[in-house]
Design a protein that fits this description.
Helix content is about 50%, strand content about 15%. It is built from 10 helices and 9 strands. The longest helix is centred in the middle third of the chain and has 38 residues, at about 230-265. The two termini are about 35 Å apart. The structure holds flavin-adenine dinucleotide.
């Protein structure tokens, strides 16, 4: 589907083994206990996947965007929590890779490629909620450097990441969109990480509130020049996050389709000597699930091509891909619940986990509401932010 070459196919088949042996076995416990999938992330780190998209001379695998998508889709079929943590990591890594201001950029990228450094995004704030593009926290000059107070409301991998790619208003900002991005470290003085994450889905994410109390930020920690954070957010981080989460949603759709097909073909009625697949309404639901899944994957494949050879339409495809995929995941997993009845409602088919995990994409920013609004604005020639 994502037009990978034969070497990349080989890499994906070794990933399938890794997922089968080292990620899938932990998925149930990750969900039921709401624990961070440390063993799954270690397996990815040890096999080099932390540096999937980093250049070879930094120790990375130098794989393109389409492999990021293919890898995330594979992982999400087994454990969406692991896939989401990984999407956050690769997206934040792209910010570090594209930084022209960060001191220690290269050693940090080498640590990432060596699987020794997990990173993530800390954008959402209590004061601007899902409107991540407009932080309310401010950077206050203090001698040669700065301090900041911030209430970051959701940080995936909060207790496990080695760094957070964070946003703040630049000193003297005239608007909340005068943003600077910087690296925060969870072990820095003034950082307080919240308590246990107990969400409906993606329960292994460790997505906790984190408070920065008069935390020091040095010039060396800046990921962008002052006031140039919005450009990095919108031109680099948003596209990587959008296609990564679209791939995760597509993985959930594929897992739901597989589980539903398996159940319809294996469960039946002794009283009529027939199987569930003999019921036309269930076959119809399955067909709809398949169409929605493949539509979403095809749009994502097209979007990857757009991103590799950008046109003025590329940002629109990026937004639409995320929107289509997260809506498909919610609808497809809902259809799976309906097609499989009580067997899905109980936990033994794993479908209810997929159903709960799919709901997270809907509320993660940019939410479906934001995506619809941005897409409508772009189509009618209005600026993205009114
Ligand atoms: C599992 C999970 C992991 C997360 N991980 C991270 C992370 O690692 N880093 C991070 O920065 N954030 C993260 N988030 C936060 C996420 O991106 C959102 O910021 C958060 O879910 C918003 O919740 P809220 O209650 O503040 O939403 P609100 O902003 O209160 O939204 C409530 C409703 O209003 C709608 N709405 C809001 N603004 C508009 C608008 N302008 N136009 C139309 N409708 C609007 C929304 O779509 C939503 O339906 C995570 C969230 C989840 C669920």
């Amino acid at each position: 589907m994502y037009a990978v070459n034969s070497d990349q196919h080989q890499l994906l088949s070794s990933l399938t083994h890794l997922i089968h042996n080292s990620i899938a076995p932990h998925a149930d416990e990750t969900d039921s206990r709401g624990t961070f999938p440390s063993a799954s992330m270690k397996a990815l780190a040890d096999a080099g996947y932390f540096g999937l998209t980093l250049p070879k001379d930094m120790g990375g695998m130098a794989q393109p965007l389409r492999m990021f998508v293919a890898v995330v889709e594979e992982i999400a079929q087994a454990c969406a929590s692991t896939a989401m943590i990984y999407v956050m990591h690769v997206t934040a890594t792209q910010g570090i890779l594209n930084s022209v201001t960060l001191g220690e950029r290269e050693p940090l990228l080498r640590e990432i490629a060596a699987g020794k450094h997990l990173t993530t995004l800390a954008f959402s704030e209590r004061g601007s909620r899902s409107q991540f593009w407009a932080p309310v926290s401010q950077l206050t000059p203090c001698g040669d450097s700065f301090t900041t107070d911030a209430f970051k409301s959701w940080v995936t991998s909060a207790s496990y990441a080695s760094s957070y790619v964070s946003s703040v208003q630049k000193p003297g900002a005239e608007s909340p969109m005068d943003v600077t991005l910087y690296i925060a470290r969870p072990d820095a003085p003034g950082v307080e990480i919240g308590s246990r994450f107990d969400g409906l889905g993606l329960r292994g994410n460790n997505s906790l509130p984190v408070t920065f109390n008069a935390m020091a930020v040095s010039e060396q920690d800046l990921l962008t020049k002052q006031g140039e954070g919005a450009a990095m957010m919108l031109e680099i981080l948003l596209p990587w996050f959008s296609i990564g989460t679209a791939a995760m949603a597509n993985g959930l759709c594929r897992a739901a389709l597989k589980a539903t097909t398996g159940h319809l073909c294996s469960a039946g009625f002794e009283n009529t000597n027939s199987q569930l697949r003999d019921l036309p309404n269930l076959r119809s639901r399955l067909a709809e699930m398949s169409v929605r899944t493949e539509q979403s994957r095809a749009l994502l494949a097209h979007t990857i091509g757009e991103m590799e050879n950008p046109t003025p339409m590329t940002p629109l495809y990026v937004l639409q891909s995320r929107l289509a995929a997260i809506e498909a995941a919610v609808d497809v997993t809902d259809l799976a619940m309906k097609a499989c009845g009580g067997a899905a409602f109980s936990k033994h088919l794993n479908i209810e986990r997929l159903f709960r995990d799919a709901r997270a994409g809907w509320v993660m920013a940019p939410t479906t509401d934001h995506l619809r609004e941005f897409t409508g604005r772009a189509l009618t020639g209005l600026p993205l932010f009114g």
